[in-house]
């Protein structure tokens, strides 16, 4: 029997747990908790006396040492929600160790939620009912899955078998019925808000709410307050949380103690702070394309090189790029990135991350990635914008351009103003040019050289022809663009310069899915034009339309 085992270990749920966020702090903590739990799982696995080699993500003992978690990116969720590893030991030994790892993960999550209850509520109202309710919710949420099998040296085939077994385990999971009968948590709207008094099925909504309000009015003073973004771990007067959402809200205090590093775990800024002088901000959601094929290696060594490259990208490159442009990283786990950005830096950061992912010499040379970038008003519901960012990422990954034989490897942009929503998808490169550079040139053109009627006139002519299919369609668009450029220039241009502008606009048009998409993109670029003017001292309009 083999004395070397192959292991895959996974923690969930991921998207629902992270996305249940009313504030940026909730979003950060959801991501960091999952990253922390995987880190604890890996650390526990290494501490059981068996030799462990992590294939994905790559990790050394220093990487898993909580006392060495320092620096500006110490509070970044940098571990994915799963790991693959080799363990030197018998199947029985490895299985017993994994059972212990499973237990540690569940215990750690329980500690986070119980810590929050102890911090928020005075001892005299921490009744058996409150703790019983919390324990029930904690037990029902966490999903820990793992599989192990002897390793016989055929990495690709055995990894495929192991992944299939993990999928089967997940599909065969037991669904626990979560019966809730009280007043719903104001963040996740899935579980009951914590309440020190039991609920009666015959009570009215008014009576239920009064019980909950009575519980939460007793929270400790440090968690009271109504000013947005002022108090670390603050719970507003109209918020009533379940044990899970409370654990997320207070998680930063917990991690300050765990890592003994208060300076690196400062309060996550609100969207108002992120937006700064603008009334809008950006959310970037990035994911590598076809990463399964990159890990579908013939040997563990090849898979390890990919894992090394992803570790460098997520732990060093991404935090540096986002920080440099005054953005805030939520998580960077391998090829998966979520970040908040100032609206004027969004295109630049998106492009730089894409260029550094898959660049020559990175270990991922030739790999591509797709990005969803949503621009939203700072007063828009955070959960809605997060959902839109993920939808845009999926739309970018679904990008197909038949004429140019392009798939995925795209940027999907959405601008959500107070009254309108515009979205479109563009490839990262157009005729050898970086699309972001091309878009910035057109923004400059719209800002400085063209009259405000240019896009309106073009839309008026060509939107009715969106579904018109003709081999002469490109020629019609080119002819009309040239005519409108001549008419709309504030200062007359030489014919050579005009032709250069026309060629760039036509290159952009030909990369789009339709005339409608092209018009939509031009309209969206006028939004960035207004941001440019605002940056140069213009008015700050709360209700600008794209």
From TrEMBL:
Query: GGDEF domain: from which residue to which, for each copy?
Result: 279-416
Q: What is this protein called?
A: Type III-B CRISPR-associated protein Cas10/Cmr2
Q: Record the organism.
A: Ureibacillus suwonensis
Q: Which UniProt keywords apply?
A: Antiviral defense, Coiled coil, Nucleotide-binding
UniProt xrefs under Pfam families = Cas10-Cmr2_palm2, Cmr2_N
Q: Which domain of life is it from?
A: Bacteria
Coiled coil ranges: 382-409
């Amino acid at each position: 029997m083999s004395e070397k085992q192959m292991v895959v270990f996974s923690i969930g749920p991921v998207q629902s747990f992270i996305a249940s966020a009313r504030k940026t702090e909730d979003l950060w903590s959801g991501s960091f908790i999952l990253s922390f739990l995987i880190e604890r799982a890996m650390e526990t696995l290494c501490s059981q006396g068996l030799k462990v080699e992590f294939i994905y993500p790559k990790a050394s003992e220093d990487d898993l040492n909580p006392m060495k978690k320092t620096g500006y990116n110490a509070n970044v969720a940098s571990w994915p929600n799963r790991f693959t590893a080799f363990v030197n030991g018998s199947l029985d030994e490895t299985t017993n160790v994994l059972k212990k790892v499973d237990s540690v993960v569940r215990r750690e999550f329980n500690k986070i939620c119980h810590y929050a209850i102890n911090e928020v509520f005075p001892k005299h109202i921490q009744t058996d009912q409150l703790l019983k309710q919390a324990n029930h919710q904690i037990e029902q949420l966490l999903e820990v899955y793992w599989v192990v099998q002897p390793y016989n040296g055929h990495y690709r085939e055995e990894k495929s078998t192991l992944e299939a077994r993990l999928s089967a385990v997940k599909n065969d999971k037991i669904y626990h019925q979560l019966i809730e009968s009280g007043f719903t948590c104001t963040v996740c709207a899935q579980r009951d808000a914590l309440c020190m008094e039991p609920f009666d099925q015959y009570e009215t909504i008014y009576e239920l709410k009064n019980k909950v309000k009575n519980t939460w009015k007793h929270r400790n003073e440090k968690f009271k307050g109504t000013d947005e973004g002022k108090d670390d771990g603050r719970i507003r007067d109209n918020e009533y949380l379940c044990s899970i959402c409370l654990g997320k809200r207070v998680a930063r205090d917990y991690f300050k103690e765990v890592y003994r590093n208060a300076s690196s775990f400062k309060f996550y800024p609100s969207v108002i702070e992120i937006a700064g002088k603008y009334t809008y901000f950006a959310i970037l959601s990035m994911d590598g394309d076809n990463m399964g094929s990159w890990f579908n290696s013939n040997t563990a060594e090849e898979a390890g090189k990919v894992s090394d490259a992803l570790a460098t990208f997520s732990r060093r490159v991404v935090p540096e790029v986002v920080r440099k442009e005054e953005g805030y990283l939520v998580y960077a786990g391998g090829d998966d990135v979520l970040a908040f950005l100032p609206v004027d830096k969004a295109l630049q950061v998106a492009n730089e991350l894409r260029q550094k992912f898959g660049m020559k010499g990175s270990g991922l040379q030739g790999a591509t990635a797709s990005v969803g970038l949503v621009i939203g008003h700072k007063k828009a519901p955070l959960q809605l914008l997060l959902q839109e960012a993920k939808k845009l990422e999926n739309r970018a990954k679904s990008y197909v351009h038949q004429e140019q034989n392009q798939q995925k490897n795209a940027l999907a942009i959405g601008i959500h103003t107070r009254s309108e929503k515009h979205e479109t998808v563009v490839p990262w490169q157009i005729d050898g040019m970086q699309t972001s550079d091309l878009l910035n040139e057109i923004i400059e053109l719209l800002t400085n050289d063209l009259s405000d009627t240019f896009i309106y006139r073009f839309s008026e002519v060509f939107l009715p022809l969106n579904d018109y299919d003709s081999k002469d369609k490109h020629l019609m668009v080119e002819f009309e663009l040239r005519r409108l450029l001549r008419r709309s220039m504030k200062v007359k241009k030489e014919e050579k310069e005009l032709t250069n502008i026309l060629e760039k606009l036509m290159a952009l048009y030909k990369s789009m899915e339709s005339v409608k998409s092209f018009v939509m993109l031009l309209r969206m670029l006028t939004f960035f034009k207004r941001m440019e003017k605002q940056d140069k001292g213009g008015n700050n309009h709360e209700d600008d339309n794209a």
